[in-house]
């Protein structure tokens, strides 16, 4: 029997680190080690080996000091308030040692110190949606993608905010050990949805602004709860007791998008969730999501996601208990 490759994973710790950015990937990789003994060796390290206090007040005791740590296979830099303070020592360590790792990973705003060390120049990366503009402004050589849950550019992997580190860690385990391993760990962690990297960082309801006017807020809620209803501008305007023209203008002013685009995004998100979370047929999902026919849903998926519904389900649906 061939000897299993042991991949060392080193998580960098510092004061005011986001605790879930650390513990999320930590649980995934240690779970993978339990699933496949000898697959990973997971370590944590702070600059001098001293305990650190997370930005939620939790104290973490590292295994070692970064100055004594061996070069890992996978180096993980988490985010948190600590990444938004200048740390010349951490920047220098990353600049010197991080390029020697086979795989460089950031979670949330962990991309900021990596960018400060010049390690993301020319790379396509992502980070927490609230700091994408800051990263792009401060580091113009970095190509910031604001939408995905995580991004891979060569040997550099970056993820969006907080829980997205779990999604990225599961994707790395799948890359290393296969899909069955990743899905088994997801089930053990009771991760309801293992999101693909190209999924948006947040839902339509979070991405769009909430309307200031109560009738429009009620319409937004109605759209979400009834994607298979008549959601034409005329029908929605009638619910808001406005003329279609006044409704369309007010909706865009309050939400930053048109009623039609908002409906399209809600229906797409609803269909994706049904494909990911249920065993319902494509025709049933197309009706429930307001597309009417499988062909209409297929066109919407190909246009928005570059994959037909059946292919999307095959690639990205998590484990369904049958």
Structure, described:
- Keywords: Transcription, Transcription regulation.
- The protein is an alpha/beta fold.
- The chain has helices at residues 19-35, 88-97, 111-116, 132-138, 164-177, 179-188, 204-207, 214-225, 233-239, 244-255, 259-277, 282-288, 294-305, 309-316, and strands at 7-12, 40-46, 52-53, 59-60, 64-65, 74-77, 103-106, 124-125, 143-144, 150-153, 156-159.
- The chain folds into two domains: 7-188, Rossmann fold (3-Layer(aba) Sandwich), CATH 3.40.50.880; 204-316, Homeodomain-like (Arc Repressor Mutant, subunit A, Orthogonal Bundle), CATH 1.10.10.60.
- The protein is built from 14 helices and eleven strands.
- Helix 4 links the parallel strand 8 and strand 9.
- Residues 201-207 and 318-322 have low confidence and may be disordered.
Number of domains: 2
The CATH topology of the largest domain is what? Rossmann fold
In CATH, what is the class of the largest domain?
A: Alpha Beta
> What is the second-level CATH architecture of the largest domain?
3-Layer(aba) Sandwich
Low-confidence stretches: 201-207, 318-322
Oligomer: single chain
Describe the global form: globular
Question: What is the string of SSEs from the N terminus onward?
Answer: EHEEEEEHEHEHEEEHHHHHHHHHH
- The assigned structural class equals alpha/beta
Average pLDDT across residues?
88
- Distance between termini? 33 Å
Q: Find the CATH superfamily of the largest domain.
A: Class I glutamine amidotransferase (GATase) domain
Radius of gyration equals 22 Å
Widest β-sheet, arrangement of strands = 5-2-1-6-7-11-10
Strand content: 5-15%
Biggest beta sheet attributes = 7 strands, mixed
Quick one: how many beta strands? 11
Helix proportion range: 40-55%
* Number of helical regions: 14
Keywords: Transcription, Transcription regulation
Domain HTH araC/xylS-type: 217-315
Organism: Streptomyces griseoruber
GO molecular function, one term: DNA-binding transcription factor activity
